[in-house]
Specification:
AAA+_ATPase, Amino acid/amide ABC transporter ATP-binding protein 1, HAAT family, alpha/beta, 258 residues, Rossmann fold, 10 helices, binds adenosine-5'-triphosphate, ATP hydrolysis activity
Length: 258
C-alpha cells in the first residue's frame, strides 16, 4: 500500500506572541495540492501573522510549518527552491524596472537558465505580454497587481501564497482574478490566500479557515462557514451568538460574511 503524500502546506499548533500579545494561539490547518484555502477573519485576527510565519518572517513561539512534509525554509530563496512563492499586500514591485525585469527577479535569484523564456511565458499566460518593456510603475493598479502575481508564478511554485489578491480591484478585474486563481489550482498548485473580499473568497476557495483573536473558530467549505453562527458573531464583534455587543473596528471593512 502506498503511503499518502504529506500535504503541500501543513501548519501545526502555531503560536506567535508579540511581547505580551498572543497573535496566534495554536493555529493548525493544511493545504493540499490543487486546493485553494482562504484565511479570513476580522481585522487583527492573525491572518498576516500566519502568512509571515509560513514565510519565516516571524518566529513562532511554538508549532510547525511544513512544506510537503519538510520544515519550511526561513529565507526567500530557500522558500522559492522549496516551491513556495508569495505576493505582497503592497505589491513590492520595482517601479522603475520594466515588467519583464520585475518578473525576472526571482528567476535570477534561482539562477534559472531558462529565466527569460519562463518570464515571457508567464507574462503571456497572464495577458501581460504587451506590457513587458514598460516600467512597472507606469501601469494602472490592476495590471501592476497582475505583474506581482506573474512574478510569483514565474518560478512555477507548488504553493502560492496570495496576500489580499482582490484588494483594490473592481468587478471585472475581480472576476478575471477568480478565473486565474481557479486555473492556478487546476494546474495542481496549492493556493493559500488572505482576503477581506468575501464574495471573491466564496468564488474561489475550496475551504475557508476563519481566524478570530488568533484562534481557528471555523473551517470548512464556503457554504458551511457562511452558515456558521460563530463566524457571523466574530464579524459582528459579539462574544457569542445571541449576545449583545458593539461592532468591532474593522467589521465594516471586512464586509461581514454574507
Ligand atoms: N510586528 C508586530 N508587533 C506587535 N504586534 C503585532 C505585530 N504584527 C501583528 N501584531 C498584532 O498581532 C495581531 C494579529 O495581527 P495580524 O496583522 O496578523 O492580523 P490580520 O488578521 O492580518 O489583520 P488585518 O486584517 O487588519 O490585516 C494584531 O493584534 C496585531 O496588532
Amino acid at each position: 500500500m502506498n503511503t499518502p503524500l504529506p500535504p503541500r502546506l501543513s501548519v501545526g499548533g502555531l503560536e506567535v506572541a508579540f511581547g505580551g500579545l498572543t497573535a496566534l494561539g495554536g493555529v493548525s490547518f493544511d493545504v493540499a495540492d490543487g486546493e485553494t484555502v482562504a484565511l479570513i477573519g476580522p481585522n487583527g485576527a492573525g491572518k498576516t501573522t500566519v502568512f509571515n510565519a509560513v514565510c519565516g518572517l516571524v518566529k513562532p513561539r511554538k508549532g510547525t510549518v511544513r512544506i510537503a512534509g519538510r520544515p519550511a525554509p526561513a529565507r526567500t530563496t530557500g522558500l522559492l527552491k522549496a516551491g513556495v512563492a508569495r505576493t505582497l499586500q503592497g505589491l513590492g514591485l520595482f517601479e522603475h524596472l520594466t515588467v519583464l525585469e520585475n518578473v525576472l527577479v526571482p528567476l535570477t535569484s534561482l539562477r534559472d537558465p531558462d529565466a527569460i523564456a519562463k518570464a515571457h511565458r508567464t507574462l503571456d499566460d497572464l495577458g501581460l505580454a504587451h506590457f513587458a518593456a514598460r516600467p512597472a510603475g507606469t501601469l494602472p493598479y490592476p495590471e501592476r497587481k497582475r505583474v506581482a502575481l506573474a512574478r510569483a508564478l514565474a518560478t512555477d511554485p507548488r504553493l502560492l501564497l496570495l496576500d489580499e489578491p482582490a484588494g483594490g480591484l473592481g468587478g471585472a478585474d475581480i472576476d478575471a482574478l477568480a478565473d486565474t486563481v481557479r486555473r492556478i489550482a487546476a494546474d495542481g498548485r496549492a493556493v493559500l490566500l488572505v482576503e477581506h473580499h468575501v464574495d471573491f473568497v466564496m468564488e474561489v476557495a475550496d475551504r475557508i479557515v476563519v481566524l478570530d483573536f488568533g484562534e481557528v473558530i471555523a473551517a470548512g467549505t464556503p457554504e458551511a462557514v457562511q452558515a456558521d453562527p460563530a463566524v457571523e458573531a466574530a464579524y459582528l464583534g459579539l462574544e457569542a451568538v445571541g449576545a449583545t455587543g458593539t461592532a468591532r473596528d474593522g467589521a465594516a471593512e471586512a464586509g461581514g460574511i454574507a
